[in-house]
């Protein structure tokens, strides 16, 4: 989608200066976001950053403290059944209906929507055709998650919320799931908002990523924009004539390499130029902004 279309079309999700406090604990400190039709958008952040809180506010499950929120043209706090029917949710897991069979459960869910998908097509779409007759509580973790996805899209939602969707998936299941999300966005124009801690997943799937750290959006853009953003300096490594390893950070690595080359008699030993990655940017944000979070403590514990 071009920038022009972005600005011309009304965003599917529009958030302005959203704040949220639980009691006297401030969790969101003024979040602004626009998410557009057909975008796959990842809200990426460490534990406790406020991802689930944000998404629950957007889904209409949680009352915000202040700010403006519009989802599919309505304030989620006042969303009616018709509005709710346009939204698909894949929550952490549906714990009910353990004894239902897969196909029965899907067929049952079709009755909630005006224009549902065909249950057989849906089973094929999420790769559960062979499990159609199986009881829900006999599914593997990954199969269970695929069923969650099927339940989330049975009503042909325009907007799909995926809360940490691939937790517990094996690599094959994860890959198939990514293809499914891409297909939904590309072929059906579904807007997808996913929350994840998984950088690789965000980079692989999302058109744009917002990094939420400590209740604030620290960066937002395409994966490559973010990688270029905060950690703008490249790192140049080489081995000096005296045999010592050297490293230098610079905004102009070609200049540095040129200077090294001029100063050296022959080739520069072990020369390496490393461009910042999305992971560098993310870790930079997390370290800088929330060094006292659980994750930082975990990291320190792991390092110790
Ligand atoms: N119902 C609640 N009452 C009080 N505090 C809450 C409640 N829900 C969440 N919090 C706190 O709000 C902060 C943000 O939580 P939230 O679940 O939104 O983070 P998250 O980014 O989704 O984290 P995770 O990746 O661990 O799921 C945390 O400090 C959490 O302890």
From TrEMBL:
InterPro entries: AAA+_ATPase, ABC_transporter-like_ATP-bd, ABC_transporter-like_CS, ABC_transporter_ATP-binding, P-loop_NTPase
Residue ranges of domain ABC transporter in the record: 13-239
Domain of life: Bacteria
Repeat in keyword set: no
Record's bilayer topology term: Peripheral membrane protein
Keyword Membrane in annotation: no
SMART domains named among the record's database cross-references: AAA
Keywords: Antibiotic resistance, ATP-binding, Nucleotide-binding, Transport
Cellular compartment(s): Cell membrane
Gene3D superfamilies assigned to the protein according to its UniProt record, in alphabetical order: P-loop containing nucleotide triphosphate hydrolases
Molecular function terms from GO: ATP binding
PANTHER family: ABC TRANSPORTER ATP-BINDING PROTEIN
Name under which the protein is recorded: ABC transporter ATP-binding protein
Species, as recorded: Streptomyces marokkonensis
């Amino acid at each position: 989608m071009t920038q022009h279309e972005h600005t011309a079309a009304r965003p599917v999700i529009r958030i302005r200066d959203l704040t949220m406090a639980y009691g006297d604990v401030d969790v969101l400190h003024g979040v602004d976001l626009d998410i557009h039709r057909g975008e796959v958008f990842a809200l990426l952040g460490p534990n406790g950053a406020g991802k689930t809180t944000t998404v629950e506010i957007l889904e209409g499950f949680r009352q915000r403290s202040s700010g403006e929120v519009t989802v599919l043209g309505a304030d989620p706090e006042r969303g009616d059944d018709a509005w709710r029917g346009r939204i698909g949710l894949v929550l952490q897991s549906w714990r009910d209906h353990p004894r239902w069979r897969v196909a029965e459960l899907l067929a049952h869910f079709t009755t909630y929507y005006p224009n549902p998908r065909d249950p057989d097509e849906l089973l094929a779409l999420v790769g559960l055709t062979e499990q159609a007759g199986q009881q829900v509580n006999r599914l593997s973790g990954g199969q269970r998650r695929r069923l969650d996805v099927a339940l989330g899209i049975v009503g042909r939602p325009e907007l799909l919320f995926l809360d940490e969707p691939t937790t517990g998936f094996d690599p094959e299941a994860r890959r198939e799931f990514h293809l499914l999300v891409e297909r939904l966005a590309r072929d059906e124009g579904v807007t997808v908002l996913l929350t994840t801690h998984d950088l690789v997943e965000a980079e692989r799937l999302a058109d744009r990523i917002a990094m939420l750290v400590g209740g604030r959006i620290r960066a937002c853009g395409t994966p490559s924009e973010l990688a270029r953003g905060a950690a703008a300096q490249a790192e140049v490594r080489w081995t000096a004539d005296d045999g010592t390893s050297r490293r230098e950070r610079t905004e102009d690595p070609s200049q540095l390499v040129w200077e090294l080359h001029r100063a050296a008699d022959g080739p520069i030993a072990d020369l390496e130029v490393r461009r910042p990655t999305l992971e560098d940017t993310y870790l930079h944000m997390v370290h800088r902004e929330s060094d006292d979070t659980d994750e930082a403590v975990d990291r320190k514990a792991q390092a110790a």
